[in-house]
Design goal:
The protein has about 400 residues and is α/β, with parallel strands linked by helices. It contains 15 helices and 14 strands. The termini are close together. Bound molecules: adenosine monophosphate (AMP).
Length: about 400
């Protein structure tokens, strides 16, 4: 059985075709600059890469090129569309109703359209990807896998904001959580590595990339997470502020004469590690600047480390313990210095890492805790696409 996984952004479309018999990626690629000038499709299969440069006026055009590529004599990996058992779509937000991965029909699409106001950045491109796919591959089942699903069992006292309750009932303003597919994947992997049923474990998973979030997983269920109504809440990120005193926002708007859109842009694209350091949103460049004595770069590093520590600590309190701490995504998997700083002085919780084991190369799945540590600290490379494929497979007929 083969599953195609699609992740549609506003001007991009990522794809991976999995052979579910062994989990192999048969082909993957990226369509860029959809709806703009200089469009391209980069298609990779086995050890080969083929790039097509062409205008991609919309997602449907991009997808049609992807399908041509998958089927082509020269660069293809399948001989008929019928070999694809189903398509799994990454959808950031399932709102209040779509709590689990769902087979897509007209009703699901209508619901997703209806929640665009609470998902304005990621909703429209996901709908475009789904619509294009339903048109071009009408005989293939389409499945939506939501980033929010993993958080559907979070209790109301963890999701409701302390603002007038009517704002929740009127506008669905509450905490939803994001990156759920990644947290779900690494939590399951951690249990596998520990060789214990997930139902017996308390796990804190740290997805630290350009966007970052931390999740508390109790017996396999996500009980709390750092992102909220949008992926803006929680940790400082590459360019996102994360949590700040909400009163700062109207204050900045008045002081700088900014519109709601402008202040949103400031908090989304000019804040976080970039805003603090003034150097970059990328931890590698910040580390380099910090090495050279740049005060703001060092400050950005310290703020990030402290924010991660605070959230881990609060989740250990909520979970009443911790068996495993997991690092994943670009920073989590690669930044040994950050992992070391986060885990420093956490022996009170039983978290102790071996500095030599911590120096590891990307892609490695590794236990980096000391032999006497009560908590297993692990690096687990995330694989959201495979998790989406696994969910999608459940909807396929044999
Ligand atoms: P992601 O969003 O998961 O792709 O993560 C991207 C981020 O990971 C980049 O912006 C960097 O901050 C960080 N990153 C990637 N490689 C490294 C590395 N070798 N050392 C430190 N940070 C890294």
């Amino acid at each position: 059985m083969k599953i195609l996984v699609l992740n549609a952004g506003s001007s991009s479309l990522k794809y991976q075709l999995f052979n579910m018999n062994n989990g192999d990626v048969l082909a993957k690629g990226l369509c860029e600059c959809i709806g703009g000038k200089g469009g391209s499709v980069t298609h990779k299969y086995a050890d080969n890469k083929h790039v097509i440069e062409t205008e991609l006026e919309d997602h449907e055009k991009a997808l049609s090129i992807v399908l041509d590529m998958l089927l082509s004599d020269e660069h293809g990996v399948i001989s008929s569309i019928d070999e694809i058992g189903a398509v799994g779509h990454r959808v950031a937000h399932g709102g209040e109703k779509l709590k689990a991965s769902s087979l897509i029909d007209d009703e699901v699409v209508k619901y997703l359209e209806g929640i665009v106001p609470i998902n304005p950045l990621h909703g429209p491109p996901a709908i475009k990807g789904i619509t294009a796919c339903r048109r071009l591959m009408s005989s293939v089942p389409q499945v939506a896998v939501f980033d929010t699903s993993f958080y559907s069992q979070m209790e109301d006292f963890r999701t409701i904001y302390p603002i007038p309750y009517e704002l929740y009932t009127k506008y669905q303003i509450r905490r939803y959580g994001f990156h759920g597919t990644s947290h779900r994947y690494v939590a399951a992997k951690a249990a596998e590595l520990l060789n214990k049923p997930i139902e017996e474990l308390k796990i804190v998973t740290c997805h630290l990339g350009n966007g970052s979030s931390i999740t508390a997983v109790d017996k396999g269920i996500a009980i709390d997470t750092s992102m909220g109504f949008t992926p803006q809440e929680g940790l400082p990120m590459g360019t996102r502020s994360g949590s700040i005193d909400p009163t700062v926002i109207p204050y900045i708007m008045k002081a700088e004469n900014l519109s709601p859109d402008e202040v949103e842009d400031l908090l989304n694209r000019k804040s976080g590690l970039l805003g603090i350091s003034g150097v970059s949103n990328d931890c590698r460049q910040i580390a380099e600047a910090a090495e050279n004595g740049n005060y703001r770069a060092k400050l950005a590093q310290k703020i990030l480390v402290n924010s991660i520590k605070k959230i881990i600590g609060s989740y250990v309190a909520e979970l009443n313990g911790i068996d495993a701490l997991v690092f994943t995504a670009g920073i989590g998997e690669n930044d040994a210095a950050l992992r070391e700083a986060v885990c420093e002085d956490m022996d009170f919780f039983g978290i102790k890492i071996d500095k030599e084991l911590n120096k590891t190369l990307r892609g490695a799945q590794k236990d980096i805790s000391t032999a006497d540590a009560k908590v297993k600290t692990m690096i687990i490379p995330t694989n959201e696409e495979y998790m989406i494929a696994l969910d999608t497979l459940k909807f396929c007929k044999e």
